[in-house]
């Protein structure tokens, strides 16, 4: 919830990454049923940024998301800076870690096309600058 504090450390680069856990089968099923999720990165004071709507796909047990307009969007920068935040999946909130995901661009592209087709939005999501703004969403333990 916007304004709610998470236990966010001020500089994750100087500390350990947050403890995460795998998605459960039920959580993955719920994610599969919704075409879009709402995402909010945490600010350095632990409050959440406003939720934004993003597409998501599944690669095995992973849930990658991308910033349509690349790495300069406020929500993306906040998610990367803090490394933590929340997602809203059809009204259910999850505290999550946001982890930059590199090296699987072609797999994410294909998953996006399989899920959403090949309209102009998907074409934008499968090329630069969106490709450089891929994050893996992982639930916090």
What characteristics describe this protein?
globular; alpha+beta; 141 residues
Q: What is the CA-based Rg, rounded?
A: 14 Å
Low-confidence stretches: 7-14
Range of helix content: 25-40%
- Termini Cα gap: 19 Å
Strand numbers in spatial order across the main sheet: 2-1-4-5-6-3
- Give the DSSP E fraction (strand runs of 2 or more residues): 15-25%
Largest sheet: 6 strands, antiparallel
Number of strands: 6
| Average of the residue pLDDT scores | 90
The secondary structure category is: alpha+beta
Helix-strand pattern = HEEEHEEHHE
> What is the count of helical runs?
4
Shape: globular
Structure in words:
- This protein is of the alpha+beta class and 141 residues long.
- Helices cover 26% and strands 25% of the residues.
- It is built from 4 helices and 6 strands; from the N terminus they run H-E-E-E-H-E-E-H-H-E.
- It has helices spanning 25-33, 74-82, 105-116, 120-125, and strands at residues 36-41, 52-55, 63-66, 84-89, 92-100, 134-139.
- It has a 6-stranded antiparallel sheet.
- Strand 4 and strand 5 form a beta hairpin.
- The longest helix is centred in the C-terminal third of the chain and has 12 residues, at 105-116.
- It is globular.
């Amino acid at each position: 919830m916007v304004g709610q504090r998470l236990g966010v450390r001020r500089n994750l680069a100087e500390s350990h990454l947050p403890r995460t856990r795998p998605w459960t089968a039920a959580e993955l099923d719920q994610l599969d049923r919704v075409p879009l999720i709402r995402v909010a990165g945490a600010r350095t004071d632990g409050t959440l940024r406003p939720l934004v709507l993003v597409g998501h796909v599944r690669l095995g047990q992973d849930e990658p998301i991308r910033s349509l307009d690349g790495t300069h969007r406020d929500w993306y920068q906040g998610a990367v800076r803090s490394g933590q935040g929340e997602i809203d999946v059809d009204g259910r909130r999850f505290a999550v870690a946001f982890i930059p995901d590199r090296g699987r661009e072609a797999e994410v592209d294909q998953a996006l096309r399989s899920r959403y087709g090949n309209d102009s939005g998907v074409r934008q999501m499968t090329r630069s600058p969106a490709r450089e703004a891929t994050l893996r969403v992982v639930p916090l333990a």
